[in-house]
Every structure is written in structure tokens, then in C-alpha cells.
């Protein structure tokens, strides 16, 4: 028996192609496309058994708010999120909002149909490999290099990092050159590049910025010759 469903996506061609494919497989598709802003209202009004709700950015804050509203006002509607390869946190956010599953945009029609049937039966519908990845990352989260210190550190070469650490330690150009085994002119050039990349005008400002953002802690100690 066909499922009474909706395909709601702001990419009309994608929505209509998927809707047509599902119709050919015996399902009753109530609507094919709608802008993201009106998705919840449309689903609530039409009340399908299953809704395929498209998203282009599963990690964006608030992206699953329509799912929350649909489940609050039409709890009997099973919502399948249709989107790109998600981050594990994107999958977790979808389920936290009340989604019954997650289907990739590039999934074969047979896979989409299996997910629809599972969702209508009240089962979680998500590919095993996506679920394994989600559990793996959530249980063993990778460090997120999104803070200011890490961002600044990523802009510098290893040699420039060493120069910055020596500047923060109060070394002048002569000491930096001697400690690194380079010419004073080369040391001076490295210092100028560090100042330029950090967007500061003096060595004192560079040292203060590095200390304030935690960059020096990430850089680690400089190995000194005995």
C-alpha cells in the first residue's frame, strides 16, 4: 500500500524529481516543493503520513525548527530529513528535533523508499554508516580548532611560531638569530611576517595577543641549545 507523503524542499527540481519517482512506485505525493520558511505550515496543513523535508545545511543553528513545530502540532507525521552528507552532530540535531530519520540527497530511490516505510512504522530511518559515524564522533569528539588562538596558530609556519615564542620570551633580533641558527636579517624578516600575519604593529602587541588567545600554550616550549 502506498504512503501518503510530502516532499518539501526549496530546490524545486530536486523535489519534483523525487516526488515523480515516488509516484511511479505507488506512493501518493501531496506536494513537491516549498521554500524552507513555509515548510512547517504546509506540512501541518496537509498532514501526510511521512514528510521528506529538505535541508542544505544540517549543522546550521535553528535549521530543524520546522521539524520541532511539525512534531508539536502534528505528532503523528513522521519527518525524514533530506540533506547532504551530515556531520554526526547534524544527525543528532535532527533526531533531537523529533525527526524519524535522515536520508542523503544522493540516496538511491530504493533507499529513500526503505526509509519512508521505516518512518511510517515508527522506526528510526538512517543509514548504518551514518549512525556509526555519529556515535563515533559523539563518543570521541575531535578537537574543534575554531577558537582564536588556534586560528592564529594555523596562520603561522612552524618557524614563525618559534619566532613568536622567542619574541614573547623577550628575545631581541640578535638572540632570535643565534638561537635559531639564522642570520639577523633573516630573523628580522621572520618577525615582520609574524607581525603582519597577526595584524599587530609591534613585538609587544604580538606577545600580548599570543598570550591572551592561548596561542603560546598551544605552540609549546621552544627547544633551547645547552
Itemize the secondary structure elements and their pairings.
Layout: E1 4-8, H1 12-24, E2 28-29, H2 39-46, E3 50-54, H3 65-73, E4 78-83, H4 88-97, E5 101-104, H5 109-120, E6 125-126, H6 128-139, H7 148-155, H8 158-168, H9 173-180, H10 184-198, H11 203-213, H12 215-219
Parallel strand pairs: 1-2, 1-3, 3-4, 4-5, 5-6
Describe this entry's structure for a reader.
It is a single chain. Helix 4 (88-97) links the parallel strand 4 (78-83) and strand 5. It contains twelve helices and six strands. The chain has a six-stranded parallel sheet, with helices on both faces. Helices cover 54% and strands 11% of the residues. With 226 residues, it is an alpha/beta fold. The mean pLDDT is 83. The chain is rod-shaped and about 80 Å long. The N and C termini lie far apart (81 Å). Residues 4-120 form the Response regulatory domain.
The sequence of SSEs as H and E is EHEHEHEHEHEHHHHHHH
Radius of gyration: 27 Å
Major sheet size, sense and barrel closure: 6 strands, parallel
Strand content: 5-15%
Tell me roughly what share of residues is in helical segments.
40-55%
- Backbone shape: rod-shaped
Q: How many β-strand runs?
A: 6
Question: How far is it from the N-terminal to the C-terminal residue, by CA?
Answer: 81 Å
Average residue-wise pLDDT: 83
Low-confidence stretches: none
Structural class: alpha/beta
Number of alpha- plus pi-helical segments: 12
Strand order of the largest sheet: 2-1-3-4-5-6
Protein name: LuxR C-terminal-related transcriptional regulator
InterPro entries: CheY-like_superfamily, Sig_transdc_resp-reg_C-effctor, Sig_transdc_resp-reg_receiver, Tscrpt_reg_LuxR_C
Keywords: DNA-binding, Transcription, Transcription regulation
Pfam family, one: Response_reg
Amino acid at each position: 500500500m502506498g504512503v501518503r507523503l510530502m516532499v518539501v524542499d526549496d530546490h524545486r527540481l530536486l523535489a519534483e524529481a523525487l516526488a515523480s519517482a515516488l509516484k511511479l512506485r505507488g506512493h501518493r505525493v501531496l506536494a513537491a516543493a516549498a521554500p524552507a520558511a513555509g515548510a512547517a505550515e504546509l506540512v501541518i496543513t496537509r498532514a501526510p503520513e511521512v514528510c521528506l523535508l529538505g535541508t542544505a545545511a544540517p549543522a546550521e543553528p535553528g535549521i530543524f525548527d520546522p521539524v520541532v513545530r511539525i512534531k508539536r502540532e502534528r505528532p503523528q507525521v513522521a519527518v525524514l530529513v533530506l540533506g547532504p552528507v551530515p556531520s554526526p552532530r547534524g544527525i543528532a540535531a535532527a533526531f533531537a528535533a523529533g525527526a524519524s530519520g535522515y536520508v542523503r540527497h544522493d540516496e538511491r530511490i530504493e533507499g529513500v523508499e526503505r526509509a519512508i516505510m521505516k518512518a511510517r512504522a515508527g522506526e528510526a530511518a538512517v543509514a548504518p554508516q551514518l549512525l556509526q559515524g555519529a556515535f563515533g564522533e559523539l563518543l570521541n569528539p575531535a578537537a574543534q580548532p575554531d577558537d582564536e588562538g588556534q586560528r592564529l596558530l594555523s596562520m603561522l609556519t612552524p618557524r614563525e611560531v618559534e619566532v613568536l615564542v622567542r619574541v614573547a620570551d623577550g628575545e631581541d633580533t640578535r638572540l632570535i638569530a643565534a638561537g635559531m641558527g639564522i642570520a639577523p636579517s633573516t630573523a628580522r624578516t621572520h618577525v615582520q611576517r609574524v607581525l603582519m600575519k597577526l595584524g599587530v604593529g609591534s613585538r609587544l602587541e604580538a606577545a600580548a595577543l599570543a598570550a591572551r588567545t592561548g596561542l603560546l600554550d598551544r605552540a609549546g616550549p621552544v627547544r633551547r641549545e645547552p
